[in-house]
Every structure is written in C-alpha cells, then in structure tokens.
Specification:
Layout lengths: L1 H19 L16 H7 L3 E6 L7 H10 L2 E4 L5 H4 L9 H12 L3 E9 L5 H4 L3 H18 L6 E6 L22 H12 L4 E6 L7 H16 L5 E4 L2 E2 L7 H9 L4 E9 L5 H13 L4 E6 L25 H12 L30 E10 L2 E10 L7 E6 L5 E6 L2 E3 L4 E5 L12 E9 L8 E4 L1
Parallel strand pairs: 1-2, 1-9, 2-3, 3-4, 4-5, 5-6, 6-8, 7-8, 8-9
Antiparallel strand pairs: 10-11, 11-16, 12-15, 12-17, 13-16, 14-15
The structure holds ligand 9MR.
Length: 457
Amino acid sequence: MNHRRALRAAVTIAVTGALAAGMTMTLTSTASAGTTLRASAAEKGRYFGAAVATGKLSTSVYATILNREFNSVVAENEMKWDATEPQQGRFSYTGGDRLVSHAQANGMSVRGHALLWHQQQPGWAQGMSGSALRNAAINHVTQVATHFRGKIHSWDVVNEAFADGGSGGRRDSNLQRTGNDWIEAAFRAARAADPGAKLCYNDYNTDGINAKSTGIYNMVRDFKSRGVPIDCVGFQSHLGTSLAGDYQANLQRFADLGVDVQITELDVMTGGNQANIFGAVTRACMNVSRCTGITVWGVRDCDSWRGSDNALLFDCNGNKKAAYTNVLNALNAGPAIPTDPPTDPPTDPPTDPPTTPPPGTGGCSASVSLNSWTGGFVATVKVTAGSAGTNGWNVGVTLASGASVTNTWSATASGSTGTVRFTNVDYNGRLGAGQVTEFGFQGTGSGAGITPTCTAS
Ligand code: 9MR
C-alpha cells in the first residue's frame, strides 16, 4: 500500500533526524494526527466504512460527509438477494453498480453484503426448499459474485446463520434445512466466482466470548482445518449501553485462527456511554493486528435503521458528535497494522511476458476439484498446458446419468448432459508451457465420476 510506504518513509526520516541530533527514540509510538476517519484509518493500514443507501448519494450533506470521512462502503440493502435476483434467474444490479461506481470515483473499497441470508430473500426463494433451494442459492452466489468480480474487497458470503441464545448452533432456516454444508458450499462457489475477494462470515450478538461466537469460532476453525475458503469474520456490533469486557479478546481469538476480522455494522445506543463505547470498539480493533477495518451502519443518526436511538457518529444536520471525536482519537492513537517483512529481491531473472506458443503438440491435462451436496455440485477444473503450450483447449467430461450443467464460468460449454465439452474463452486459451488456468461449472444431480480430459490446439 502506497500510504503505508509513505508512512514508513516519513518515520525513517524522523528517526534519522532524531539520531543525527543525538537523541534516542523508539518506534513504539505510532500516534498520528489525521483529521478524517478515512485518513486516520488509512495511516494505520485500515479502512473506515459506512453503510450506504444509494438513494441518498444525491443529498449533498450526506454525500459530503461520506466522501470526506469514509474510504469503504457497503450497500445497506441493495446487494441483498431480494434486490439482486427479484425473480429467479433475473438479476438486477442497478443499486449495487451505482454504489461501486461511486466508490471507484471516490477512492473507496466496497464490502459486498450479503450473498446468502435467511432474511431479505425474494419471495420465490422463501417458498423453496431442498435441493431446488440449494441449487438456486449456489447459483445466486455464483452469479452475483461473478457480476461484481474484481470490484469487491470483502464479501459477506453468509450472514447471520447462527442461533441466538445458549445453543451455539445454527439458526433454523430454509437454507439450513438444505443441509449443514450449505455454508461451505456458498464459500466455495464464491471463491470460484471471484478469487480476488476476501470471503467473510458475518453475524451479530458476537460481541464477546459467548455461546454464539464460540459456535462460529468452531465453524471457522473447522473450515480452516479442511481448506474451506474463508478469509474473514465480520462482527456486526449493533451495541447497547455497555460493551463486553472481552470484546477485544474475542476478536483476537478469531484472528489467531488465521482469519482477518472486521467490525462490520457498528452502531451504539445513545446515552452517556455512547461516545465511550465507540472509542472502546475502535481501540479494540486497533489493538488486534488482523482487525483490518471498521464500518458504521449508516452516516447520520437519521440514516440509521435504529431510528430514535441516534446510534451513529453524525447528527441529522451532519455535525460530528462526541462519539466521532473518540473514534478519530482512537484511530490516531492506535498502532498500525504491521507491514509485511521486507521480501528479498528476486534472485531469478524476471520471466518474459508469455509469448505465443507454437501450435500445441505437447497437449494439456485437466484435473477437477468437486464441491458436492445432495442434488448438486460445483466443479472447478484446472487446465495445465503441456510442454508446447496451447493456443486453445477443450475439456470433455462425462456426467453421471441425470446430471446436467446449469452454469459455466471462464469457459464455454457445449451440451449440458452426457458428455459436455468446455472450450476456452478468449482470454484463457493461450497458455505457455506448464501454465495453468481454471474454469468452473455448476450442475444439478450427482457430480460423481467426473474425470476431465484435455485436448490442446
Ligand atoms: O439497515 C437495514 C434495513 O434498512 C433493512 O430494512 C433491514 C432488513 O432486514 O436490514 C438492515 O440491515 C441489517 C443487515 O443487513 C444485517 N444485520 C442487521 C442489520 C440491521 O437490521
């Protein structure tokens, strides 16, 4: 990150100057003096975000605060299932695209919220169950993550799947009733569709070490141990008048599993403690090196879903509240995310840009990784060019009886049942010797016995 490099350079100059003047100093103090949330967070290698309703972007007070103070946005509602797939198979991205454009024009990253959730499902999905719902849900993940591919910093792949109360188990929902593996199926489909996005699990009432957060912790630990692609956990943090004493310790125990953590929907009940709680949450995040950002769930008090709670950082006229000052001070006082240790300069000579290989005589090979559930599957196929490279490739698979391909990415399918052939698309056909590319497809029925064979041209 450039700003981190700039910060490091500034610190180096300061230290050099101090040593030249015969002073001693240490680098433990990282206090800075940013004057906006976004600048102060960025100086510490983090983002500071807000939930946005795109209809308000044309309100000047709102847009002025958003653009000045925040460097990350999340759609409060416009990327949810009911908004993006109002009828099955008919996708609508108007609000989401508008938010992405606004973010890109204003140097903001975008959090995607949320691919699957038991609430705000379109009516057609609410009425579905079993493998029909599972297939529809995975198709939704694939389509939406593909549409926004390359534009989303982090996706809330699954939202609020755990039960409140002391069970520590999953919440009952139509999605849960498709089988306990629905969450991992969603994460695998999201990874296949947008390999560059961080994939998060997001929930509320997880503000300390409690039965619910421990249930989620156990799921994340299991996913990490089995290679299910999860990168981050979001802690919504819709807070009342006190903060759990082990809030930071809870973030830290997740970080210790090897995932990033983020505060994703912060708002706090108004009252004497509001400003203190906002400050304490910010300090907790700053003290956890894998806490990469904070998002507040709206801009001004009157933008909040919590109505008269006045739960945010700006009043309805756009004035900064005491809570704002506490957050800004905590960002400025906190440590920066440690930068990666400097990597050694490469010793190998830089590789030449790929040149057009001669017509392939060395063939190609293909292998498949399958994510299956009762009634459906997602196949990710790795194509490796042989010694002569490829100008194009074609992969054949024979599906089990009754199975059919419903969706393909990074290749073009011919046929959908029996023997199906997948041909490269224009950007991934030319491979140098040994070079690898991936494509994927989703199917209904059984994925058993899929053995891809590759032919190069
Ligand atoms: O703020 C959102 C509100 O406008 C919607 O009506 C509501 C519908 O369920 O969802 C709100 O956002 C929720 C978020 O998507 C998930 N976590 C809880 C948030 C507050 O309810």
